[in-house]
Input
Amino acid sequence: MSAIVSINNLHKSFGTNKVLNGVSLDVQKGQMVAIIGRSGSGKSTLLRCLNGLERIDSGDINVCGHDIHHPDKLNLRELRKQVGIVFQSYNLFPHVTVERNITLALTTIKKMATAEAKKIAHNVLTLVGLEAKKEAYPEQLSGGQAQRVAIARSLAMAPELMLFDEVTSALDPELTGEVLKVMEDLSKQGMTMVLVTHEMAFARKLADVLVFMHQGKVWEMGPPDELFTNPKTAELAKFVSSEL
Amino acid sequence: MTSFTFLHVEYLLQAAVWTIVLSLVAFVFGGVAGFVIALWRVSPNKTLRAIASWYIQIVQGIPLLVILFVAYFGLAIAGFKLSPLVAAGISFAVYCAAFLGEIWRGCIQAVPKTQWEASECLGFNRFEQLQKVILPQAFKIAIPPTVGFMVQIVKNTSLASVIGFVDLSRAGQIINNSTFQPFTVFGCVALIYFCLCYPLSALSKHFERKLNVSNR
Amino acid sequence: MHYTFDFMSVFVNWPRLLEGAWLTIQLSALSIVLGFVVGTLCAIAFKSKSWLLQALVKTYVEIIRNTPLLVQVFLVYFGLASIGLRLTAETAAVIALTVNVGAYTAEIMRAGINSIHPGQIEAAECLGMSKFHVYWHVVLLPAVERVYPSLTSQFILLMLASSITSQISAEELTATANLVQSETFRSFEVYVVIAVAYLALSFLFRAAFWLVGKTAFVRKRKLGTNL
Output
């Protein structure tokens, strides 16, 4: 079975700052991969390389069959139809309703008829438990609701891979639960997910693979239980003890 | 048909001096009146507020050219025969007063309500509040839009040409009528206006940047 | 003061004045629509990667904003005629007014476009939307909603400024008033009447823009908040 994501020896710098220093990683279909680490370890940058938001300097990277390391051959829009991403600041379109936030991409990109698009919007909103809010505007939603709508918006495009960039970090503690529940349901339905997160309990319980990043490298990688109980490196041990 | 020579440019530059004079007259008289209007707009006195509000709404809803015609042709009939310079000066002052009044009202209202509360609690009366606390702060906020409006004032003086006053635009028309080279003549006129206005525009943007930085 | 006001001699000319007002409306409306398109395209050009395009647009905007409309009108009407392009006064008026309002619209729309959070654009691109669709749905439409008050103020100023085109004999309201004045010698009455007429036109335009705003910006109508 070929991997959905295949990264080999990825390097990326911002100016003189070397952010990714030889990262190699595979993600299989249906897996949930959680990336943890201190700020500055390169986690978000790695995630953003996966859908072309960041350009890589060198290395091989293949996502959903697209060779991202050859930017001139890459069809970014095709890639992004197969890879969905949810941001920390949800980035919902404030001037249209929740339903329109979801149908906008469907009608403009997939050229769907409005009725069909609305049906899909209904389905994904039901999945995240927000069908009742479809006529609301983003400013009327709580943070947790807005984030769930953002997830629904990406899901509507039927991606093969979903990326989550610290999606609960900006939420009040009592609102993270509802978002994590949606992500758990998604994983159970077989979605391939890569998430950058600080939610250790969530990662430990649900991730198939835990990736600990440090100084731009994959420092340790493996089943979460193993990494948490038996960290092989001092850095991971320190990180785990400080987070728990 | 004469050709456009340096003498003509000199003539234009001399007329430009009148443009500057007219702009200053408009700004000074319009500014004083505008200041009163701005204060009336924020006054606790309902009547003063209404008068100022109506004045601004009416003047802002009429073209400057029409105000000019009322002042020059209209008042002449009523027995007030005004020279083009005086008619233009009065019209521009009336016009500027409305716009500056509105701009400055906005700047006064941009001073946080807490400043009013604090100064009132210290025992200042309204006059002292304005003089010592509110207006100094409003003044700083007012600099960028006021300098920006000066650009409008300079451009508006071009309308004085319509009632025969020999400002820069009229001088251009006179020269064009003998040289018949509108592109060259009016191009030169535009260039001179640009040299008068652009520094003011740039200054306004500079002050605005400074203000935004100090507010952060 | 031995002057008797005679407004009747002005009022009997109301058909002509109405025609003049109608032309004012037409000139203004056409220039506003065309100028808005020009200005929006320029605002988009401000963000282009080509420094040449940016420089051209910036030059256009600065020249127009720092020179009087009267001179711009003369340049279009007399200037183009001198190189063989003879335009009617009305055509020259529309061109000059469009060019003028285009420059102001460019500045206003530029501020509006810059106010759109980059995260929005990123999110739309990550959904796979084409650059055109991103620009249209996520940048331009919300930008127009944000700067709508500034835009409408500018457009009303343009309608009032159309009076300047009377100087090249475009037969709009002010020019018609000048004609009536020269026939009746009732300067005060004529100009007071058209001052009132312009006030009415300002009100009319303001109401029209308000209506357009209420129709176009559904979210604002329903929630009443600013974007």
Notes: Residues 18-172 of chain C form a domain with the MetI-like fold fold (CATH 1.10.3720.10).
